[in-house]
Design goal:
five-stranded mixed barrel; alpha+beta
C-alpha cells in the first residue's frame, strides 16, 4: 500500500500519460488497503486472514466522450497500457454532454484536514485481535440459555485514498478501521433463535468493551425465544436504531442527482417542501473527528462540508455530482462518491437523524397495542412510488411496555406517509456511518403469520 505522497506521484504520472495520449482532461484515483481479521468459534481459533490490495482507476475525456479503466498492477508499463486502453475506449464512446471533470473554480485548494482518522494500526497485532474475538464470544456464550455460537471476530483495516485531476487537484488521506462482532444461538431444535452485536471504530481505543458487546448479543438471542403470534392491523411501530437507519438509506437514494435526472424518485417534486414532521432534522457530517466516513474532499476533488439534508422537516435539496448537476442545470454539492472502475455518483458520509425529546420508553408509553421491530428482512421498497413492504421480527408493545417476541410478520406503508408520521426518540448514538435514534411511525399496516 502506497503512502499518500507516493500515491499522488503515481497518479500524476498517469495524468501526464493521459495528456500525452491526447486526452482533453483526465482524473485518476488510488485506493489501497490492508486488513487482518481473526475469527474464533466455541473458544477456539478458527481462522486468521490477511489481505492487501491496491488499485488505480483512470478516466479520460476526449471532448464529451469518456471511458474509465482500472488496474491493480501499478508498475509503469501496466499503467501506461491502462491509459492507452482508456484512450482507445474513450475515442469510440458515445458523446455525453454532461460528462466532465468538476468545475475548476470549485476544487478544494486548502491542505486537507486528516480528521483524526488514522491511529497507525500498530497496536492491533493478530494476538490482540484474537484476545478481543475470544472475549466477545466468551461474554456472549456466558449468558444463561445460550447453547451455541456462530463465532466471534475482530479485525483491523488501514487504507489510503488519493485523487488527482488534470486541472490541478491532488490530495489524499489515510484511515484505520477496527471492528468486532459475535453471533450466538439460544435454545435448541425448532425453538432456536440467533442474534448478534457488533461495533466499529476508527481507533482501537474507541471500541466498546468486548464483554458489553458479547452480553448484548447473548441477551438479544435469549429475548427472541418462544415468539408469539401477532394479530394483523394498523398500529404504531417502533424501530430499533440498528434497523431504523435503513430509512435514511431510502431517503438518500431518492434525492441523489441521478435519481432526480432519471425521474425515478418518490421525492421527485418535493425539494423545498415538507417531507418529515416539523422538528425532524437529518444531517451529513463529513468532518466528524474519527467518523467512519469522514473525508476532506469528495470523489471529484470538491471540498466537503457538514450540512442539513432535512431541516425542520423540509427537504433542503439534491445530492449532486458534476454530471447530474449539469444535467439538472445546477451546481455540484460536494457529495460525489466513486470507486476505481467508473464515474462518480453521489452519496453521503456520516449521516444521522437528530435526537428527539422523549426516551424510547416515553415514546411507547401511550401505545396500547403496537410493534417494536429489531430485525428487517428482504428489500420490498419501490424507489419510484415509495411503497414499502418488508418482513420483520421484534416484540409486541402492550400497554406501553415491551411484551413477548414476535416473528414472521410483514410491515407495510408508503415512505411519504411514513416520513411524515415519524417521531425520533432521544437515544441517538454515533456508532455507525448512518445513525438514528429509536424511531416511532404511527399507522403502519402489520400482517401477522
Amino acid at each position: 500500500m502506497l503512502s499518500v505522497s507516493n500515491a499522488i506521484d503515481r497518479l500524476q504520472t498517469v495524468i501526464a500519460a493521459a495528456r500525452a495520449e491526447g486526452a482533453d482532461a483526465a482524473d485518476a484515483i488510488y485506493v489501497g488497503d490492508h486488513s487482518t481479521s481473526v475469527q474464533v468459534r466455541l473458544g477456539k481459533l478458527e481462522d486468521v486472514g490477511s489481505s492487501e490490495g491496491e488499485e488505480i482507476g483512470v478516466r479520460l475525456f476526449f471532448g464529451t466522450r469518456s471511458a474509465s479503466v482500472s488496474t491493480s498492477d501499478l508498475a509503469g508499463d501496466a499503467l501506461a497500457t491502462a491509459v492507452q486502453r482508456a484512450a482507445a475506449m474513450a475515442r469510440e464512446a458515445p458523446e455525453d454532454p454532461y460528462a466532465g471533470l468538476a468545475p475548476e473554480n470549485m476544487l478544494m485548494r486548502a491542505a486537507p484536514d486528516d480528521f483524526d482518522l488514522d491511529d497507525g494500526g500498530r497496536s492491533a497485532t493478530p494476538e490482540r485481535l484474537k484476545a478481543i474475538a475470544l472475549a466477545v464470544e466468551d461474554a456472549a456464550r456466558a449468558v444463561p440459555g445460550i447453547t451455541n455460537s456462530e463465532g466471534g471476530s475482530a479485525s483491523i483495516g488501514r487504507g489510503t485514498v488519493a485523487l488527482a485531476t488534470s486541472h490541478g487537484f491532488a490530495a489524499g488521506y489515510t484511515g484505520t478501521s477496527y471492528g468486532m462482532s459475535v453471533s450466538v444461538i439460544a435454545g435448541s431444535g425448532t425453538g432456536m433463535q440467533r442474534d448478534y452485536a457488533w461495533r466499529q471504530a476508527r481507533y482501537l481505543a474507541d471500541l466498546e468493551d468486548p464483554e458489553a458487546i458479547g452480553r448484548r448479543a447473548g441477551e438479544r438471542a435469549i429475548a427472541r425465544m418462544n415468539p408469539t403470534k401477532l394479530a394483523s392491523g394498523a398500529m404504531p411501530v417502533l424501530f430499533d436504531p440498528r434497523v431504523g437507519s435503513s430509512f435514511l438509506g431510502h431517503l438518500i437514494g431518492a434525492i441523489t442527482g441521478s435519481a432526480i435526472a432519471r425521474k425515478t424518485s418518490f421525492l421527485l417534486d418535493q425539494r423545498g417542501r415538507r417531507v418529515f414532521a416539523p422538528g425532524i432534522t437529518i444531517r451529513d457530517d463529513p468532518h466528524r473527528r474519527r467518523g467512519m466516513r469522514s473525508r476532506p474532499f469528495d470523489g471529484e476533488g470538491l471540498p466537503t462540508a457538514p450540512g442539513a439534508i432535512i431541516n425542520d422537516g423540509m427537504l433542503e435539496g439534491w445530492l449532486l455530482d458534476s454530471a447530474s448537476a449539469r444535467q439538472l442545470g445546477e451546481t455540484p454539492t460536494g457529495h460525489a462518491s466513486r470507486g476505481t472502475s467508473g464515474p462518480p455518483g453521489a452519496g453521503t458520509t456520516n449521516l444521522y437523524m437528530e435526537a428527539g425529546q422523549q426516551t424510547p420508553d416515553a415514546l411507547m408509553a401511550d401505545i396500547r397495542h403496537g410493534l417494536y421491530v429489531s430485525e428487517l428482512i428482504g428489500h420490498g421498497v419501490n424507489p419510484v412510488t415509495g411503497d414499502y413492504s418488508r418482513g420483520a421480527s421484534g416484540f409486541l408493545i402492550e400497554n406501553g411496555r415491551l411484551g413477548p417476541p414476535v416473528a414472521e410478520i410483514t410491515i407495510a406503508g408508503n415512505l411519504k406517509d411514513m416520513f411524515l408520521n415519524l417521531t425520533p426518540a432521544s437515544d441517538l448514538e454515533f456508532i455507525r456511518a448512518v445513525d438514528v435514534p429509536t424511531i416511532r411511525i404511527d399507522g403502519m399496516m402489520v400482517a401477522g403469520a
